[in-house]
Write a structure and sequence with these properties.
With 106 residues, this protein is an all-alpha fold. 81% of the residues lie in helices and 0% in strands.
Length: 106
C-alpha cells in the first residue's frame, strides 16, 4: 500500500499527463520503470552493504564469511520481484485515473 501513497501524491502530475494526451500504457510504463529503477538501486546498495559487512566481520576474525554468486543472484531476484509486484498495482491504478478528477485531486 506504500506504493499507492507515493502515486496519490503524484495524482495531479498523472492527470496533467493524461490531459495532454498520455496513454494508459505510457503512464503504466513510466511508473513500472521508476519502480524497477528504485528496486535496482536498493539492490546495489544492499549488495555493497552486505559485502562491506561481510568483509568487516571476516577482518575482525569474528567469523569466516563468504559472499557467493548464488546469494547475490537470490538477493537481486527477490528485490526485482518485490519491485515489479509492488510497482505493478500502483502503475495500473495511476494509468486508470480520470484526468479531470486527477487534476482536481488535493
Amino acid at each position: 500500500m506504500g506504493g499507492l501513497l507515493l502515486f496519490t501524491e503524484r495524482t495531479r502530475e498523472i492527470g496533467l499527463r493524461k490531459a495532454i494526451g498520455a496513454k494508459r500504457e505510457d503512464i503504466s510504463t513510466q511508473f513500472l520503470i521508476e519502480s524497477i529503477a528504485l528496486t535496482f538501486s536498493g539492490g546495489v546498495i544492499g549488495l555493497i552493504l552486505g559485502w562491506t559487512v561481510s568483509y568487516v566481520i571476516t577482518s575482525l576474525g569474528l567469523l569466516q564469511t563468504k559472499v557467493t554468486l548464488s546469494s547475490v543472484l537470490l538477493a537481486f531476484g527477490v528485490s526485482a520481484a518485490i519491485g515489479i509486484v509492488f510497482g505493478y498495482y500502483p502503475a495500473k491504478w495511476a494509468a486508470s485515473l480520470n484526468p479531470i478528477n486527477a487534476l482536481r485531486f488535493e
